[in-house]
Write a structure and sequence with these properties.
Layout: E1 2-3, H1 25-35, E2 42-43, H2 45-58, H3 75-79, H4 84-90, H5 94-104, H6 129-148, E3 159-162, H7 183-193, E4 199-204, H8 211-222, E5 233-241, H9 249-254, E6 267-271, H10 279-293, E7 301-305, H11 326-342, E8 347-350, H12 361-372
Parallel strand pairs: 1-2, 1-3, 3-8, 4-5, 4-7, 5-6, 7-8
Helix pairs in contact: 1-12, 2-6, 6-7, 10-11, 11-12
Length: about 375
């Protein structure tokens, strides 16, 4: 199942943001798959939410969150993960939203002047971007639900790829790295609060460390949180550039002790420059180690943050310390899916990082490979 919604296509200039964004990555992926006659069904957010609403009615509405009479994602879902005061500002007036967005998207300099931002060119208020961000959060949650409820078609009925989302740098009380709130952890904690999943793996293979996710999970553990009289858990695995942002010297020097990016994931696998040939082996070893550290506890769901920015043709200079070939990118994702399917673990995949004219290629080729060379339950590794 693919989850794609054209309403999530962010045209930055509409908000006065002057960051150059290439033609739509999700749109290019879906167009490529359509040309290839991919059998993977495509659903938009409205259809996905309606399907879950119908499921709730069939269940008699007995499960918490089963029937969606209101928005799929509510303020309380963000407050479950982030600082309440921070979230209150985002749901407050436009001025507070704009301040948070200016900082998160690095649109303002320390002296108060604008950076890559001209509000006089905007056709929509910057504060409206928050509504788009909430739809990304909704999509990550819905993809997780579709995977858990096995709403797709065999052999990928427990697999859903959301062609947006992946805001893994968002921290407890602030946005960071173009990520205002953390859709990944919000989705995971909402599922746990609804008693739909107790244990979730986060497998993050974006080029940049999932530092915000690591901080949020640590803070949740420090608070001793549990839902429905159970002890829910999240295990975070991050495979990333060893020295690129947010692990560059300037970011580390400015970091606050006990905060991202100084908070460890449960398992970090840093890849040094020129170690691309070791990437797949390190990833395979990391997946095995994640399973070992989980003991006898099998996850109910894996959320895969499948950033395409390790690709050698990625257009973001700061991700250049990783340079995987297209074949390696496809092998990376097939390895993860094979690992999960062998263990019958449903998986929700999120698009995450990927920049420039070629950023759509790794995801499109991976999804296309699923039809050419199907991965079935029990297949190695």
């Amino acid at each position: 199942m693919l989850l794609y919604d054209p309403l999530l296509e962010i045209a930055m200039p509409r908000y006065g943001i002057l960051i150059p964004i290439p033609p739509s990555r999700p749109q290019k992926i879906t167009a490529f798959l359509a040309e290839r006659h991919s059998p993977l069904p495509v659903m938009n957010l409205k259809e996905a939410a309606l399907g879950i609403h119908t499921l709730g009615i069939q269940e008699g509405g007995t499960r918490n969150g089963g029937i969606q009479d209101g928005p799929v994602i509510e303020q309380k879902d963000l407050e479950r993960v982030h600082d309440r005061a921070f979230i209150a500002k985002l749901y407050g007036g436009s001025e507070e939203k704009e301040k948070a967005l200016l900082t998160t998207y690095e649109l303002i300099n320390s002296d108060g002047t604008y950076n890559r931002y001209n509000p006089s060119l905007a056709v929509k208020p910057l504060a409206d971007l928050f509504d788009v961000i909430l739809r990304h959060v909704e999509g990550s949650y819905l993809a997780s639900r579709l995977a858990l409820e096995k709403k797709g078609k065999a052999p990928y009925e427990d697999f859903c790829f959301f062609l947006s989302g992946g805001m893994h740098h968002a921290r407890y009380d602030s946005g960071s790295g173009f990520c205002l709130v953390n859709d990944i952890i919000i989705a995971a904690r909402k599922l746990q609060a609804e008693d739909r999943a107790a244990f979730i793996w986060i497998i993050d293979v974006d080029a940049h460390k999932g530092d915000g996710s690591a901080e949020l999970v640590k803070f949740s553990r420090d608070r001793g949180e549990s839902f429905a009289d159970r002890n829910p858990g999240i295990f975070t695995l991050s495979v990333h550039m060893a020295r690129g942002w947010p692990l560059d010297s300037a970011s580390l020097a400015a970091a606050e002790k006990g905060r991202a990016p100084l908070v460890d994931s449960d398992l970090d696998i840093p890849i040094e420059e020129k170690e691309d040939d070791l990437y797949i082996t390190r990833l395979a070893d990391g997946l095995a180690e994640m399973e070992r550290r989980s003991g006898n506890r099998k996850p109910d769901l894996a959320i895969v943050v499948a950033g395409a920015d390790p690709y050698e043709k990625d257009g973001l200079p700061s991700s250049g310390l990783l340079a995987l070939s297209l074949d390696q990118c496809v092998e990376r994702d097939r390895l993860i899916l094979s690992f999960l399917k062998k263990r019958k673990i449903p998986s929700a995949w999120i698009l995450a990082g990927g920049y420039g004219e070629h950023a759509w290629e790794p995801t499109a080729r991976f999804l296309d490979s699923l039809a050419e060379r199907p991965i079935r339950t029990g297949e190695e590794p």
